[in-house]
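Predict the 3D structure for this chain.
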Amino acid sequence: MVDFYCRSKFEKADILEQAANLLIELGKEKKRKVKEEKDTTSPITSIKSPLSSILSTPTSISSSLPSSILFTPPSPPTNDEKKEEGEIDKSQLPQSPVDLSLFANPLLNQIFLANLAQALYVLEGGLGSFDSREGRIMRTLCCIAVALFSLAAANDGKDYGIPNWKCDAEVMKSLFRRSKMVPESVHSLRFADIDVIAALGDSLTAANGAGAEVNDPVAVLIQYRGLAFGIGGDKSLDEHVTLANILRKFNPNLFGYSTGTGSANVWKTAKLNAAIPGAESSDLVGQANDLIRRMKEHPEVDIKNQWKLVHIFIGGNDMCDWCDYPDVVSDQHFRDNIGKAVQILKDNLPKTIVVLVGMLDLSLLRKIDKGKYFCDKLHTFECPCEQELNFPDDDISAECKKYMTAEQELMDGRFDTTDDFTLVIQPFFEEINSPPMTPDGEPDLSFFAPDCFHFSAYGKPCPFSSKPLSSSGHAVVAKTLWNNIVQPVGLKDRYANLTDLSPTLACPDKLCPFIRTTKNSVDCAPYMTPVGN
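Done. Predicted structure below.
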């Protein structure tokens, strides 16, 4: 009944556009009312309406409806079933008078959506007018419910792993073993010599929303650090590709990778992942100092004698502020902010290689948004400049290119003044200006979390395509990052086809079995050392 109502009144695109616009409009009005009344109550609960009761009580209006349209959820899982399935850590959800537990798992999401659908019936029966603001909002929310119900019905796709990855036998004999002696030079660093992995960055390194269900945009607030492409350690390489999981093939005793969900200050989850959602390049200095403190205080980290890899990815939030504060977040400031953080690492962490992932061209967000009104309006909050009409695609791309060029200036030798430290930029994002695409020629939203901004971890059915997909944002990016790392400096790919999953993980060059640096990429022979047994 509800499905017929929504589909007969609106085209699908109109439904989503109205939904996003009305929700934003409601938010602005609530903010104004709160300011006028100087009321600290949550904006949603400060308005006495059916909407607030729906958000706080899953079955608040069930008694008002005929049994023929009531949603009857399946029986709640038993405690044993919950343990098997795994539950989202509700402590990671934002604190609010609204009962956010409704969003914490797919079952309750469906209950919530069902109640939105029920609200339509109540309003249509005379409890509210569709001509009123609340009536229009409730009608639109009902239509969102229909769209999300269709997504909830789809099964999750499979994660993207590389089962039984190996190189040829001759390569395996030397490349997967540690050096005979702990290397003194970073240019002689084998992958198996890395004992510690760490990371700095923003929400993409914190992996916000990576494990979110396709119909659960609220879960984008959750930091799925164990799935992060650079430092996540959930599962194994056979099941989920991350840089940390690849390095564990070389050194099973690798320390520092993240697991599970949690914020940067939760050691059990974050370990040496110091990334903070919302961070800009100016925040890297603070993160670098925090990381150094963690290493110095932890008994399993030998700063002087163990080799460490620090992964950095930053810049999205800088660019999202560029149109409003071009002088503050200029490409020069961006370069200098990163440089200051890397210098702090150099001054305090001997035996360290820093892997900096090059800037991503954020103009591709507009290609994702095209025709996807919910994503488009959601990005109003996540990336205001992306919504700025006076900041056209070409300008966004040009500024991102300036950031990329500024990053490259950091490899001018300033961090090669000692043998035990270096910085290497991995530029595979630089020439990507389109999102991954489906066979239908549409943006592959399975690559992204439900907000169409952050990377997903698992392959999911695409919400706007009838064809199930199997790509996975973090896993695909991790594979591409690894392949960039094993390429010599100066010959690294600056473009990656994120749609094509056929290329596998590259094997290191047996003629230069080290992490490629500026110096060993020119001539590897001076850095060759014997391998251990």
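The chain has a mean pLDDT of 75.
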